[in-house]
Amino acid sequence: MKNSLIPQIEALITAPGYQPLNKSEMARALRLTPEQRGAFRQALGELVAKGRLVEGKKAKYRRNVPREGQSDNAAPPFRGSQRRAGTKAARGAGGVIGKISFAPDRQKKSAFLIPEEPEKIPELRGMDRPRVLIPARYTANALDGDRVEIRLLRGAAPKWQRQRSQGKSAPGRGGADDSLHGQVLHILERGRTTVVGKFHGKGARATVVPDDGRLPGSFRLVSVLPEAKIGDVIVAEFIEWENPESIPTAAMIEVLGKDDDPGVDILSVVHRFGLPVHFPENVLREAEEISETVPPAELARREDWRDRDVFTIDPEDAKDFDDAICVTKDPDGTWELAVHIADVSYYVTGRTALDREAQKRGNSVYLADRVIPMLPEKLSNGVCSLKPHVERLTHAAMIRFDASGKVLATRFASAVIRSQRRYSYEEAYAILKLPAREIEGWSDPHERHIAECVQRSWELAAMLRQRRFNNGALDLDFPEVRVVIDEKGRAVGVKRSEYDESHQLIEEFMLAANEAVATVTKNAPVPSLYRVHEDPDPGRLEEFADLARTFGHQVGDVSNRAELQKLLKNVRGCLEEHSIKIALLKSLKRAVYLAEPLGHYGLSKTNYTHFTSPIRRYADLVVHRVLRQWLCKQGEPSTARQVDRPPTQAEMIGMAEHISKTERIAAEAEMETQRLKMIEYLERLCAEDGDTTFFANINEVRPIGVFLELNELLVKGMIRREDLPPRDEYMFDRARNQFVSRGGATVLGVGGKIKVRLHRVDRDRGFIDFVPA
Fold it and tell me: How many domains does the chain have?
């Protein structure tokens, strides 16, 4: 569908007397609402790409008048002003393109380039995370996240730059090569369109100081909203940065409020990460047109599971129920598992506004105080959600197992269910812990029957879980701590959720369904998406092993999966279990979406995809369409008469890259909001009782201080060297990498346990400092 703003922009730039305008000026001329800004930027991008608009001086747009012989759609050449810094180092090959990433500390202006084709740079081959150091004097006018072109410079970078930028990184283990650095030549594509921060100054001195330390220290505001007050948190649209020696400019587009107003901290994160705040009107209109009732003909075509023992288990506060299960055991000892997944593809069809918006978002985002859904509430919490006692459409995977849990056969069908019961994880866990004879004595026959189904389900799930670990899967599950937010958006408590049998039950069944679908799509001649977790870099695994040894654990060859499993088993229940598992996760590669089935290292599965959460993940919706198209070709009677055309292989590749990116952004935003609210909770807790103490594990020791993690809250912080009491009592032992008391009584080293109190909090830089209690 053509962007509706394109004709409006073309009418504006072709009007008599039009003078070039920048984005903000053009938006005001068109009288756009804040909700239209995203579509407006997209429309400008399309017009520039097609050569109808040219971005001139001061980022002002003019109509492109093609030269004789030039196509009207020819894109103009890239224009940009960059500083070309000189160097005494020997010059090497240039033209390397990638994304630039700055340190999160404003005091460190150097950056790294993550190249798009690292295999073309000899020094980076074989690195787990290849990157090129860009010294501060060579970053020109690049912003964090920009797509840039650099010139490679071979020869040692300044020593202070290497020390600041690389820390402990080493060639071949994910770091950058000291002898290779780069100089920014061109800004190909800006990664930032908005800046979130505090408003300062007035008139010509009006500025915004970004919350994100990876950006320049301030942006000059060329326009200010009348309601803005000094100190407000505001959102500004980046305009230009022509000269690296000058201050970049932006235009204020929204005032969020004072930084201590309820919800402003979360809104700041939402805008900083570019998360969508509202659904476009056409998307909401399509959602509202969806009927609450399913046509009788559609119900008749589907397998009828409305009277079967189907139930759901989800978090207590969940509203979007993606999956339901039904487990039966036959007299011969075989099992049948039915995993019913919300049939989102029935309601969200391809080439619609709903589908385009879902693909753009990629996934739902679960922030500390709110959910930003992938689909409008009418679908996510309504007609697609598998609520109890109402008819819902599903795409189901039926898997038969023998008495030992080995898969015998699988089949798939479109179905209709009526969930018999909705359990929270806490309720399901309580049932799993009850003796069977106690449940037999319940007076309500329906509750008794479904509870017996829950216990029977765990019998199968436990068997599948044991088989998975026997096949080499890694036990990387650990508790989750989330901040409790009141109705005013304040952090008032914490909730620790253990990864108990109720969670494991659902996990095993979802893994089984995902693997079954991946096996089918892999063997079918159709393009699809897969969840891929590649094998880790041996060097990074060995670094992890060294850390585990500092906690006193015996560690063998961790490149051997059995040794990793043995270590994870040994740390189970130890105070340092969470720290060691987090360290292992950091040593592994990130799981991503790809258009080819390369397997999943952590789960030890050859075939794996995502199928079980189409309400909140676009990848799952695509896989539903792929599977349904293939089943339709095979003559499966319950499949739809008309099936959406899934993407081509080339489209799948681009889609996999896009949704992997949106997933990373969502994860970072979720962690950031949890961090902010945890800091707020700790401040509140310690303000009420300054003597509040916490038990912590020491994870790392450096000359600047001791890095630790609180046992119960799983919060990371540090004790700075100058805060070790009494002053000058402690000295840093470089040989043993620990702090020792001059009297020899106390040692602070990795693996140690310590009792601490909160000392100070730096919200802007994200630091939490403690002192020994």
Answer: 6
Tell whether 476 and 327 lie within a shared domain: yes
Q: Write the CA distances from 687 to 319, 757, 758, 771, integer angstroms.
A: 35, 12, 10, 16
Residue 72: inside a domain, yes or no?
no
Arithmetic mean of pLDDT, 180-194:
90
**pLDDT at 127 exceeding the cut of 80:** no
Say what the pLDDT of residue 143 is.
94
| Residue 530: alpha-carbon gap to chain centroid | 17
Amino acid occupying residue 164: R
* Most confident range, picked from 20-29, 499-508, 557-566: 499-508
For the chain, report the end-to-end CA distance as a whole number of angstroms. Answer: 63
Query: Are residues 57 and 146 both part of a single domain?
Result: no
The CATH number of whichever domain residue 34 belongs to comes to 1.10.10.10
Residue 342 in 3-state DSSP?
strand
Q: Is the pLDDT of residue 423 over 50?
A: yes
Cβ atoms of 363 and 614 within 8 Å: the answer is no
514 and 643 together in one domain: yes
β-sheet bridge partners, residue 235: 196, 254
- pTM, 2 dp: 0.82
Question: pLDDT digits over 493-513, tens only?
Answer: 999 888 999 999 999 999 999
Q: Which residue has the higher pLDDT, 304 or 574?
A: 304
Same domain for 503 and 569, yes or no, is no
In a domain, 35, yes or no: yes
| Max Cα–Cα distance, the chain, nearest Å | 90
DSSP 87-150: -SSEEEEEEEEEEEEE-SSTT---EEEEES-GGGSGGGTT-SS--EEE-GGG-TT--TT-EEEE
pLDDT digit string, tens, across residues 226-247: 999 999 999 999 999 988 889 9
Query: Which pair of tokens denotes residue 46?
Result: 């399309």
Tell me: do 230 and 319 sit in the same domain. Answer: no
Q: Six-digit token pair at 396?
A: 């189901």
Coil, strand or helix at 557 = coil
Residues 116 and 236 in one domain: no
- Any domain includes 71: no
Looking at residue 352, the DSSP 8-state letter turns out to be S
Q: Are 425 and 496 in contact (CB under 8 A)?
A: no
- Residue 84, classified by CB atoms within 10 Å of its CB into exposed (0-12), middle (13-18) or buried (19+), is exposed
What pLDDT score does 176 carry?
47
User: How many Å apart are CA 335 and CA 404, to the nearest integer?
Assistant: 10
Identify the three-state secondary structure at position 22: coil
Residue 703: which domain range? 689-772
**In angstroms, rounded to a whole number, what is the distance separating the alpha carbons of residues 581 and 577?**
6
Residue 126 has pLDDT above 60, yes or no: yes
